[in-house]
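Budget justification note: compute hours in this period were largely spent on complex prediction jobs such as the one shown. Inputs:
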Amino acid sequence: MSAAEPQAVIRIQGLLTRLGGRVLHDHIDLDVLKGEVLGVVGGSGSGKSVLLRSIIGLQQPTEGRIEVFGQNVADLDGDELVRMQIRWGVLFQDGALFGDQTVAENVQIPLREHSDLTQQLMDEVASVKLSMVGLPQDAASKYPAELSGGMRKRAGLARALALDPELLFLDEPTAGLDPISAAQFDTLVRDLQRSLQLTVFMVTHDIDTLRATTDRIAVLVDSKIKVGTIASLRDDANPWIHEYFAGVRGRAALAA
Amino acid sequence: MQGSSAEDSAWYTIEREGSTFRLVVGGSWIISEARRLDPALRELDTAGTARVEIDCGALGRLDTIGAWLLLRTKRILEHRGIVVQPVNVRPEYRALVHTIDFECRAPPVELPPPHSFASRLERIGRGLCHTLNQGYQLIGFFGLVVYETVATVVQPRRLRVAALVHQMEETGLNALPIVGLLSFLVGVVFGYQGSDQLRQFGAELFTVNLLGIGFLRELGGLMAAIIVAGRSGSAFAAQIGTMKVSEELDAIQVSGLNTVEVLVLPRLLGIIITLPLLTFYSNVMGLIGGAAMCYLDLGITIPAFLHQLRSAVVGWTFWIGLIKAPVFALIIAMVGCHQGFQVERNASSVGRHTTQAVVESIFLVIVADAAFSITFSLLGI
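Corresponding output:
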């Protein structure tokens, strides 16, 4: 792969999603470029999470193609799909940690399945990953139920990063966190993205997160998608987009 | 080990110049290479050197694990009192190396071995404390429910009639098919096995006595109680537990309602009313099954069966079966609801407590049945 010109890591073409008789995505196109952080916003029920689930293959699109790393996700199965899944990491909304395993064991699950590391090295790697996401060392031997929401998200991120993926999916990473933890999480995502050269696809509601972390923003509104930067979307003609970026909360966040 | 292309497998070479030691690394230092590199890097022989240079100029790819291996090597050497100097680190790797170096200051945690004697002992101790605590809490919960029941008796308007009727339908009416079918089948099996054994003594007719006393005194009640424990005890725990997870219990409380009054009393009363009825129904269905078997296997006609039954079932036999039912009902409802309230605020604990509700209530029902047996035999009835 040449790094000379930006390549699309994710390429969505003509995606149509129909759920329960309702059209969520009406022939949308979207490219996510290598090395960028793309934020996806939209009102509740606008299909942000469904879009994410469609890209990672948990939801079959009604029509259209979704290519990740140049391969149509819907066509993959078996080993090909596993090879693809190793190259991406997913952080689900509440971490989706396995409740009967400790945090360290959770982080080691992808390592155990998809690498040949010794137990000693896996312990070290788990410890490195947990430090990278800013968890204290004593969190390693705790169970998810013993952690706060913010710590669960960090642990989920450590698991998502276990195999050094190139592409990271984040589903509402800052929802339910207090503003200080949310800001720390934003910085964390940005730092990790720079040092690991990640491409990040992030679904969020949080306009502070958008400002702090994203390079481009995709807005899902009226089943269509509109891509831009905060500056360009602020003057958009669509009332929802305008209200989102230029409304009271938007202005306050962007003025900060 | 020497390689040239960046996409090659990982390699390192050692060059010594006097007291300076050069560790030249190259190729792809990535996760798939880590297992091969790991042991040798732990045991790097640096005897007699005071300075080590780690030359990263030939590195093709570097991921977190590769960077960690390099950093760990650096730290191991530094721990031996050697000055370590990384050289030729490419700018694109600096951020990653810096992040790991900065964040991973604490030594890796030593996890306690999970299968040591001490940890087993600890688990046994925890299990015992948990069980004792459960018993203690159940008694406390029983007291609370008794208090609320008395309050409701004093003020009957507090009873939620609609909820009570709904619970009676759920636990009683809807259980009729399964209780009926299983009791019928147990009656058939009992009749067949009984007649098979008693025929050897020429005492086939006493199969009827066996069925009548066995079912009316013990089996009917136990069958109904165990099925209801499985159907409704688990449902109580799951319903109340789910409400706890979704904070509905808290919502009930802050709305000025009483959780015991709203959730427990209708379930408790519903099951206390319906379980004796189900027991009677189970008795009837069991006897029908037994009668069918007696007719087919032994040729005992229905009138003969009834005649023999009337002479066998005397005194308290029928009532002993029914007296036990409300007690079983109380156990099932108490354990089910109590387990529901014990649920913690995560989804997996709903499943755990539901299972525990069933196991615990069936266990206690059988213990209670044994206690009844002993009591009745002491009383001579």
